[in-house]
What does this fold into?
Amino acid sequence: MLSANPIPIQPIDHPILNEKQVQLAVLRLDLVHEEVSGNKFFKLKYNLEEAKRQGKTTVLSFGGAFSNHIQALSAAAKITGLKSIGIIRGEESSKTNPTLSKAVENGMRLHFVSREEYRRKTEPEFIAALGKKFGDFYLIPEGGTNSFAIQGAREIVGLTQASFSHVAVSIGTGGTFAGIADRIQDDQILMGFPALKGAWIKEEINHLLRTEGIIPKGHYQVMEEYHFGGYAKWKPELIDFIRWFWREFQIPLDPIYTGKMAFGLWDLIESGFFQAESDILMIHTGGLQGIEGFTAMTGEVFPQLF
Ligand SMILES: *Cc1c(COP(=O)(O)O)cnc(C)c1O
It folds into this structure.
């Protein structure tokens, strides 16, 4: 079983917030578990229970070479006594990086496939071929989003009794957003900040809500302006913001997901988007393990972690 650490809600104090008369606090899901961090803890917990319920001994999933999901799955599987297999996008050259080394250390078996093969990750024939190769497994989709993941994500806002007017969260596949959307109250607004570029994200969110039968009581909106060019794309101002946020509040952000969300949220606060008396909850979905890989890729060093 995965057990959660206490999850603090950290109030943020800054002159801009006083000036705009808004309150801001951060729900520190990054602290939920040492190895299974952030939203991945919630997305994996019912999946691993289900795998066990089905009598499976192995879980298999997909991800890129720096995937938070792959790293978290490797750790969660180890803790719950399941074997794990990671199907990794990219050729051998990406074989060694901190994310994958950690996964291997956790006992995960890695299998590298070309980008073309990787695109087939939802095709039944491709899955069947993986079954031939690796034997029986419990399949978790790329990014971990399925009904069991959304079930876990529903628990996130329940972690706070306080009533917020707005809840802000990063979006990858949208599974976490969908789970939270099911729990917001009719006077609350959920704001999602995609880490990827594309108008398809809104459709994907609506598709997820429909297939899960979720009809949010409150409003929800997708803020499409803060992806910085796309997944894992960045600009110096994003890095500067992450450094500034650490200096001001001692909260580490990652450049792939939470940094973009926090940048967007802060930009909206500064530009007067929020009415006076707004009370905003920022959800820190974790992802800090990816920083080492990002640093290796870009040379951008984040002082707080090194
Ligand atoms: C995976 C991840 C997300 C995206 O979650 P989805 O449920 O796929 O939308 C957001 N933040 C962090 C830090 C993540 O690792």
